[in-house]
Write a structure and sequence with these properties.
alpha+beta, Immunoglobulin-like, 4 domains, 8-stranded antiparallel β-sheet, 10 helices
């Protein structure tokens, strides 16, 4: 097929030279051109490879002779008109390969377009002949083939009949090449439908709808030696094999001969069995050279009028029933093979399959934090197909510390798909300190429109993760002097009224240090546990009768879990700033005994106190933690006890820390 295409390109280029032929051209040039056209027609129908090589050699020689004749004519034209044909001569085969490789390199940004073969052909003609062949045009296609097949092996020996049924949907891009007459460029003289294009296996998608079998024959060296029963339905014995040479369509129509040739190919693989070991696959290929499988009746129906309607409507649809038989018993082999089914051909012309990916920004993450997480852990991208045909999308990445929620998906027309890119934290935690990069590639495998990528940056920092526990007590004793009147007494008695309040704290936290510019800095922390308990007592016990005790803001202390904990690193020490909450006890009480009132005392004061509410605040326990310098080493640390005493109160505060490095 490749050599036929190359010959056709030579023919078109030679025909292009005729635009500069004067109607009074020499008879020798006209005769050479006729020979080129005749050899070109023969080459298009040639199946003998040795003859094909001869034709190429002859065409090369005739091309050089034709160029020489045209240059002589050009010399005469230059004297009369001052114009020169742009032909640069026909190179030898080595020079030609250099030319082609250089042009492919120039056009590499277009090589994924369905019409690339025609783009290349026209660019070649423009560069080396002087014309871009304006009578040759190309229309991109999206082709869908649906195979609904049944295959049957009827055996005449000891093996039973084998039956395989399956339905496959095949999609790939293609193109139709249109060649019009060179004068008016309105009359369609030749068209060809090609696919897949570009010839890349990844551009072909094959989706099995169902498959079943009640028997598979295994062959070794051409001899059947085993029969395997396969439960139906079962897709496991099918190995789908996209193949750019077999998986496409190829139709040719030519107005000069009125002939129609076509190839529709499909290749799949069934595992063979040899002594219970799955070995090399046996290929079943359905190839239709010259319409042998689906018949001349169908092929003849693809006419220029059909194509014109398809160009107008954007669709070319055919349903092709077929049946194919091979009777091997005629050559003394014990098998009769039949194949029948329906092929549905659905071609969309000028398909609009445009992939867009949002947002446009890349994905940046860093970590780990104190919980061994990277932030942000993931980012979602919305893929959209705004076209009229489905898109086969592939999403690729290289780094093993990245995870993709989707790697391959079919995106219907006017639909969206969310793809999440996330950090594989288990693998990222094993990375050394540094910045790591990767690229997420979003590919439109259908026609390449909208192919794009997003950069990913992962910053892994050297970190220390510490766990800290804090236990301690805030204790405050308040003293008042009361004068009580005991039963039967006539004078008052002075006593000390002592009330004691205790808050017992139990907190835990986790904090992270990271290295920046070769120095450790505080990188955040959180409270992981928090609890406070209170206690109230009095002496003498019967002086006050307690009605109610309530802790204000104790619940706020107990809810500190999850709150941020700031800090500061200084050399080998750390200051931790726990969230500050100031709990308080509200005590409602009334006198449980009488107070003596001196008749000479005209004041009221506490001697008239019968009941009331007292508040005992802890304003300092959590606040004072900000002053503690904790050494960054495993083990306990106990700051000095805070002991403050006056005539009216005695306050004692104790702290006990334990630090443990987790990472």
């Amino acid at each position: 097929m490749l050599k036929k295409t190359t010959l056709l390109m030579f023919i078109l280029i030679f025909l292009g030279l005729s635009e500069w032929m004067d109607i009074h051209a020499q008879q020798s040039a006209q005769e050479i051109l006729k020979k080129i056209e005749a050899l070109g027609k023969e080459a298009q129908n040639c199946t003998d490879m040795s003859r094909m090589q001869q034709l190429m050699n002859e065409l090369n020689q005739l091309g050089q002779a034709y160029t020489k004749a045209m240059q002589e004519e050009a010399s005469r034209n230059t004297q009369s008109t001052g114009t020169t044909p742009p032909s640069k001569g026909i190179p030898n085969m080595q020079e030609e390969k250099i030319r082609q490789d250089a042009l492919h390199e120039e056009l590499k940004h277009q090589q994924d377009e369905p019409c690339y073969p025609i783009i290349y052909q026209k660019a070649y003609a423009q560069k080396y002949v002087g014309s871009d062949l304006p009578w040759v045009t190309c229309v991109p296609l999206q082709v869908q083939l649906t195979w609904d097949m049944e295959e049957r092996w009827v055996r005449t020996d000891k093996f039973p009949t084998g039956i395989v049924k399956y339905k496959l949907v095949v999609n790939y891009p293609g193109y139709v090449q249109l060649i019009y007459d060179q004068k008016t460029r309105k009359k369609l003289e030749h068209f060809e439908i090609h696919g897949p294009s570009p010839k890349k296996n990844e551009r072909i998608t094959i989706q099995p709808q169902y498959a079943s079998a009640n028997g598979l024959l295994a062959e070794a060296y051409g001899v059947v030696n085993e029969y395997k029963t396969v439960s139906a339905p079962d897709l496991s014995f099918f190995q789908i094999e996209p193949h750019s040479e077999y998986g496409g369509t190829y139709f040719i129509w030519d107005s000069m001969t009125g002939e129609m040739r076509g190839e529709i190919g499909m290749c799949l693989t069934i595992d063979t069995i040899d002594d219970k070991i799955v070995k090399d696959p046996f290929h079943l290929c359905y190839d239709v050279p010259k319409g042998e499988l689906i018949g001349e009746q169908y092929l003849g129906k693809i006419t220029p009028d059909d194509l014109k309607r398809a160009l107008r409507d954007g669709k070319l649809v055919r349903r092709i029933p077929f049946e194919y038989k091979m009777d091997y018993t005629q050559v003394k082999l014990p098998e009769l093979y039949t194949q029948k089914g329906v092929l549905d051909l659905d071609i969309t012309l000028n398909p609009k399959a445009v992939l867009s990916v949002n947002p446009a920004e890349g994905f940046k993450s860093e970590g780990p934090d104190e919980n061994d997480h990277f932030n942000p852990k993931s980012k979602s991208y919305m893929l959209k197909n705004s076209g009229n045909v489905p898109i086969d999308v592939k999403i690729k990445k290289s780094a093993d510390w990245l995870h993709l929620s989707h790697t391959s998906e079919k995106l219907p027309s006017n639909s969206t798909l969310n793809v999440t890119v996330s950090i594989d934290e288990a693998k990222a935690l094993n990375l050394k300190e540094g910045t790591y990069k990767d690229v997420i590639i979003f590919s439109n495998m259908t026609n390449g429109s909208g192919n794009t990528s997003r950069n990913v940056t992962l910053k892994v920092e050297e970190k220390q993760i510490w766990q800290v526990t804090l236990t301690g007590r805030y204790e405050r004793k308040v003293r008042d002097v009361r004068e009580i009147l005991e039963p039967g007494a006539t004078k008052g008695k002075l006593i000390n009224d002592i009330r004691t309040v205790k808050f017992d704290y139990n907190l835990a936290g986790k904090f992270t240090l990271k290295k920046k510019n070769k120095k450790w800095i505080y990188d955040g922390g959180k409270v992981t546990a928090s609890n406070v308990k209170y206690n109230y007592s009095q002496e003498p016990k019967n002086l006050w009768k307690i009605k109610n005790i309530k802790c204000l803001r104790c619940s706020d202390v107990n809810n500190l879990k999850g709150r941020s904990m700031s800090g500061l690193v200084s050399d080998q020490d750390v200051f931790l700033y726990w969230p500050v909450v100031k709990p308080a006890l509200e005590v409602d009480a009334e006198l449980g005994t009488k107070l003596w009132k001196n008749p000479k005392d005209k004041g009221s004061g506490s001697k008239n106190l019968k009941s009331g509410t007292a508040y005992y605040n802890d304003d300092v326990f959590l606040s004072n933690t900000h002053d503690h310098i904790l050494p960054l080493k495993n083990g306990p640390y106990t700051p000095p006890i805070m002991d403050k005493k006056t005539d009216l109160y005695h306050q004692i505060i104790t702290y006990n820390y334990v630090l443990k490095r987790l990472k």
